[in-house]
Amino acid sequence: MRSVADSETQAPGEPVGRVLGTADATPLQFWTAVTPGSYLQLDDVVVTKRELPDREPVTIAGVVTQVRARHEGAQFDSDVFAIADGTLPALVQEAAEITTTRVDPELYVPPSPGAVVHRAQGDARAAALHFDRMEKRIPMGTGRDGIPVYLNADFLDGSRGAHVSISGISGVATKTSFATFLLYSVFRSGVLGGDAVNAKALIFNVKGEDLLFLDHPNARLDEATTAAYAKLGLPATAFPDVRVYAPPRAGDSSGSPDVSSRLAGVDSFYWTLGEFCEKRLLPYVFADADDERQQYTMVVHSVTAHLARAAQSTDGGVVVEGTSLHSYPDLVDHIVEQLTDDETRNTWAGSAINIGTVNAFARRLIASKKDLARLIRGDLATRRPHAVNTAESAQVTVVDLHNLPDRAQRFVVGVTLKTEFERKEKAGTAKPLLFVVLDELNKYAPREGSSPIKEVLLDIAERGRSLGVILIGAQQTASEVERRIVTNSAIRVVGRLDPAEASRPEYGFLPPAQRQRALLAKPGTMFVNQPDIPVPLCLEFPFPAWATRVSEAGPAPSATLRSIVQSADPFAVVGGRPDDEIPF
Q1: Which of the residues 135, 187, 329, 441 has an alpha carbon 20 to 30 A from that of 364?
Q2: Distance (Å, rounded) from C-alpha 9 to C-alpha 408?
């Protein structure tokens, strides 16, 4: 591995200025005067050298974090007009602030005023951004210079860190688009090697049906977008192996999936009454963060335990203490009846619970009948496949929630994550990796309060790395997400931000200029902070090669071609080389 000094010697790049002598230069930050006729823009990478007596030179590399221009020779604001007319002599001078990213060798001395500053290119640029130290690199997009920018896979796959936090305002920050592109890059760049075949992704679709066509090529794909993928070493294709789950239609006894735009390749998911009782899923009906503060949560846990003991499964329904129940509303009515009966209340809720607490529980349980009736079923055969199981599913599993009310969405997210996390715990190994993409994280894991879903997400954030469960969470406001989840995210990504949100301390990793730029960022522009690099990198990722709505969807790959892909050499599946492209 070559040092920064060696790289700079071989390819120093064009000289663009000299270290400024009128501003303090420190080992971690300095200013450079820009040579007339040249320019530096934000995010440019530069390198300079400090000569030392009796030692090898020190190479200091950094990223431009601010640029300014001024008239030298002007004293008053009005002088600008005289200078423009040529009646007052003055010189236009540009200067750029450089934030140091790497010092090699690690002798922290300031650059000398007057030292030549070069625009880093080739190996010098890679060394300045620590790309040369990344054993496994995931392409994320291109920098402002049009050259690929990489993510250190060690901080994503759990080797040295895990989890991604993506923030930005809705509709502009393209949070979900970046999350899916990052998944695509992980699976198709070859960084996982043979493990890519078995790695899985679980995506919760909460807005529209945009994520139901990941396995369809984008009909709007053009040559420029294809070239952008090729520059990153990726094929411009759709996801090759996708399975979509949707809830059953309300009032439909056949259990057909509730989707309108995708007519094929969608399976229904639901839970039987027996599974609801046996697996103790009742707490996830009360998944609001405020619920755990209430007294009736004691009733929730008592009733949950009683159902697990007393309920006996039949073909879809349950028998509870001799009473046959065939729907979720029937189960709710039976529970409420037992709780309001003086003779059975203590058996179900415990002797220390008063009637006011029982009534508070009953009101909320009754309110859940409309929202959860189509998800918790007693009219469908238990032998019919109906569970979301990533281990037995495709590489990418999409769970559609957009047609469900808020309470039902919380139930599905909580129960599905609990099931998948418990499955990984039983496996006891980090391989294969499971990537979980969840939007609106601030709704499921808010900063205040507690809930079953929040506890599962905290478990994933704190222990998921060792079990190979990687959370890719997206939210409009990171300031409203549980601190421990954000803190445990090794990778932090920011798109377009709201001005009030940008001022919050959760974005302290952004330099002041980048905070201001985040207010103006266009769709597709992201700022990515990773532990290897002290300055967040600004990048643009390419337009999705897969359909993001039904109007963009081209034909899906045939079953025959998909089976060929799944049985092929691992590196052919992940597209590790440009000549490994698979023509979806």
Answers
A1: 441
A2: 61
